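Bit of a strange request maybe. I'm writing a small parser for C-alpha cell strings and I need a real example to test against, not something I typed by hand. Could someone generate the C-alpha cells for this chain?
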Amino acid sequence: MSFSFAPIGHIRSPYTDKFGIPRQPGLVTAAEARVELLPEFAREEAFKGLEGFSHVWILFVFHEDCLTAGWSPTVRPPRLGGRESVGVFASRAPYRPNPIGISAVEQRGLIKDARGLALALRGVDLLDGTPVLDIKPYVPYADSLPEARSGFATAPEIAAADVTFSVEALKGIAEADPTGVLRLRALIEQVLAQDPRPGYMNRYPERREFGLRLYDRNIRWRIDERAMHVVAVEPI
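Reply from user aminoacidic:
Good idea to test on real output. This should exercise your parser:
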C-alpha cells in the first residue's frame, strides 16, 4: 500500500539556507515565518477555533536533497557531535524512508494580504520554501509529557556567552531592516547563541570565521572561545 500527498502551502521563513537553522523549534523566538496557503486551501473557515490555541504542529516535507537522496538506517546526530551513530528512528534526521518532519511552533493568527492567506508563526526551525502537509493544534494536556525521557537529546547548552556586532555589521542590519520589522539583530543573536556550526567542527579549532544566510543577507562572524563577533551583514 502506498500513499500520495500534496502540500497545502509553503513556509516563508528567514532561513534561506540549511546552515544556521536551529536544531529544534522554539530555540530562536525571533524567527518569524508564515505558512502561505495554496489557493484551494486558503479558506478562513478552515481555521475557525484555532485562535484558542497558542501553538500548532506543522507537518512538513524535508524537500531539499532528501527526496532523491534516499535514507540510511543509521545517522550521526548533531547532539552527539556528529561522531556517534544512532538508528534513524531514534533521531529526527531528514534522511528517512519518508522525509516527513514535525515541528511545534507558536501560531500568531491569520494574515490576509497581496500574497493570499497565511498563518503567522514564531520560533520556527523550517527552511524557506518547505512544503507543508498539514497543520494541527498543539494540545498541552495530551502533547506535553514532562515525565518523558529524552535519551541523548538532552537540553541544549547555550554555546555563546556573548554576541557582539561591529560598526559595519550594525550598519548592515540598519540597511536590511530599517523599521525593525524583521527583528534581524535579535534573530542573528539568537541563531549564533545556539552555535550553528556542525558538531565535528571541534576537530578544526584553527577555523575561526564563518558565514550563514538569513533572509537575503550573508552574516559573517568570527568566534573567539565562547564569544561570537558579527563582522558584517551583507546583501547576498
